[in-house]
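S1.2 Input.
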Amino acid sequence: MDYHYEQTSEIEALDSIYYGDMQILQTEPMHKFSIPIKSEGYDDGEGLACQLVFTYTPKYPEELPIVEINTDESFDELVDKNELYKHLMEQAQENLDMVMVFTLVSAGQEWLNEKWDSIKKDREEKSLAKKKADEEAEMKRFEGTRVTVESFLAWRKQFEIDMGIPAKREKEGKDKTKLTGKELFLRDTTLNESDLKFLDDGDAVKVDESLFQDLDDLELSDDDEDDEDYVPGQSSDSD
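S1.3 Output.
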């Protein structure tokens, strides 16, 4: 195999395919060059991109080329470039004895697209999970805490302590002997109830009807009834 011919022919073909992107780094003692690859969406401000650097060995393509991957910090934060390198080496072994740089670049490009799709999917799932968690937290905030008898009594006890109600009750108990009659009346509802009970008890007041039995025996003359100056109990002779 004419190694030099195979290598120079591939260099010319690659320069035509990746014109403007491919950079020749050295020609001696062996050709060394770089080709960038990037995922979909990278030109819009998102995605993955890196530089694949190839160096021919003396017996390439019967030997594997030397492959390097140059990345930046944003790439390294999202992707382990060792995974990409392993993938490229597997493809290189499958294409041994054939010029393979175009195949390796295409494999690297596809790998980046798949990795970026996976990253986007993971981000979307996390975003949806966070949104769901926020909605559930908001619903719980409106639902509040379920109230039981025990929790209510505990709350009321603490509320009264915070408001100083026990101290006020103790003070009022000490001052109770100083209340006026009106204040006692207003505070003691049993006084009201005793009056109502008295009014409701129809048999509590009894009338002696015998006091009115002799009213028919009283003699009233017609003159007395017609006399405008008549006063019951006074004799008419006084006139």
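S1.4 Remarks. The mean pLDDT is 80.
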